[in-house]
Amino acid sequence: MADSASVNETAGAPPAGPQASGYSWYVLFVLVVVYILNFIDRQILSILAVDIKADLGLTDGDLGFLGGAAFAVFYALFGIPLGRLADNWNRKKLLAIGLTLWSAMTALSGFAQTQLTLTLARMGVGVGEATASPTAYSLISDYFPKRQRATALAVYSSGLYIGGGVSLLIGAKIGQVWNQTWPDGGPLGLVGWQGAFLAVGIPGLLIALWVSTLREPARGAMDGVASPVSPTPFRSFVGDLSSIVPPFTLLGAWERGPVALAINLAVAALAAAAAWLMIGLTGNLPQWSAIAFGYYAVFSWACTLKARDPATFRLIWGTPAFICTTLGYSLVSLVAWALGFWSAPYAETVLHLPKQQLAFVLGANGAVAGFLGVIIGGRVADALRARHPAGRIGVIMFGVVAPIVPIWVGYTTDNGTLFYAMNFLAGMFGAAALGAAAATTQDLVLPRMRGTATAAFFLGTTLVGLAFGPYLTGQISDLAGTIVDGKPVGDLRTGILSLIAVAPVALALLVYAYRAVPRAEATIAERAEDAAARAAPISPRRA
Asked: Residue 151: which residues within 8 A CB-CB, separation 6 or more?
């Protein structure tokens, strides 16, 4: 039979099993459009950062918080219950509702007058955007067979880079035209950066109507695994939401017993103490308060998940291959988020490149480099996966190592052309890892768990990558900076070059993942059944 299969493949016969249809590719196209808008709304802050910093009197650390943790913590935390809701409710409806919310909050960012009001709006954007990837990853996994999944997820992920690049072009152009038209402030006294938020937020409300027309696929059909959903999805959603929001987290811990409550209180105290220490060292109250809240909430949710759904907990939190893959890629994303946010302010303030030029070149660079990297990376990952169960991990490793030289060269040169070229290479090499990492984590869980697995994957990319990448770069810039005319001036060059230090840690995690993935994937059903069986005699109600 093996010889026959080889002959068929050589002859170009179509592969056996379910096929992606034309409608599958149409759905993927719609999801890419949504993801492009997602990243326009998320990343437009970067090109507006210098103007916002001047108008609101912020430091680089403050900007890093707004571009990172202010969004990331709420994006990550609400991704948990929304990921579970995506596993149990209509995914197209959930995505349309989320798109409406984040578009409205982006538009409201245009009315911000202080750091606090802009922070609140960014939090709202994070909550809305938390619906996007859990629903999209789950839909794609039910529209595309496993052999095409990394490619499909890579195509979807291209929206990240296209949207991030387009955001620079749109933000710079709208800000320029607005300020030229109304030099003393436009309608309601709004200035250019505020008008840019309004202009990119409002179209999302129309695209949400388009999303609502998509068809909902059968869960697990592409894998031949029946995947029943909860008959009470919103009850589960409220339960998950309460498991991450203090003080309800304490009530949930108490239900699991006094020992669980004591552990929960100890973790809360430890998080608060760590935040207090870091606030004292850096003076940044919002950043470390948000981080402490986020990590404590994740711990509480993980404990609740273990009690309510031990099989899902076992395949995600109890699988070192899943954790190491997620954390290894999260450090790749830490660098990518930092460069994505700070490259435009760096070019404007350090290299003194014209804003319209840098917006066009960096925007085009980001879109093309990201698109090429994620598509080529996804195709290579699928090819390597066909040869070895852990083959995709090699592509993630490439995403760690390959950007190092371009980052060093690009952010030490004073030549604008060389800076643009190296920024392109760094972006393309880093982007190659995304499809491989996402597909690996999806393959390590059962179909009914994919929304939750996506939420857990994005906990890493946000609470490690996004929450720390922009902020640490800005904070190091502030610490390495000087005082000019009584005002602090950051050293963004040092802040960005410090990102290279994460590479050895990321490689160590991924080497372990490469060794652990084959066995973890081969024992998915066995470990899920074992976890459920162990929990059932102890607490049938929870199981």
From this structure: 144, 375, 378, 379, 382, 435
Decide if pLDDT at 10 tops 60: no
Q: Which residue has the tokens 């002959």?
A: 7
Q: Quickly list H helices, 182-257.
A: 192-201, 203-211, 233-242, 248-255
Backbone φ and ψ for 288, nearest 5 degrees, come out as -80, -25
**Inter-residue contact 359 to 171 (CB < 8 Å):** yes
The DSSP bridge partners found for residue 483 are 488
Residue type, 55: D
Handedness of CA 26, 28, 34, 37 (dihedral sign): negative
Mean pLDDT of the region 424-440: 92
pLDDT over 70 percentage in the chain: 92
Tell me the two tokens of residue 120.
């609140």
Q: Which residues, at least 6 apart from 263, have a Cβ–Cβ distance to it below 8 Å?
A: 253, 303
CA distance 530 to 209: 43
First vs last C-alpha separation in the chain: 42
CA atoms of 540 and 28, how far apart (whole Å) = 40
> pLDDT tens, 172-184?
889 888 988 888 8
In this prediction, residue 484 carries a pLDDT of 62
Instruction: Give the whole-angstrom CA distance, residue 92 versus residue 514.
Output: 34
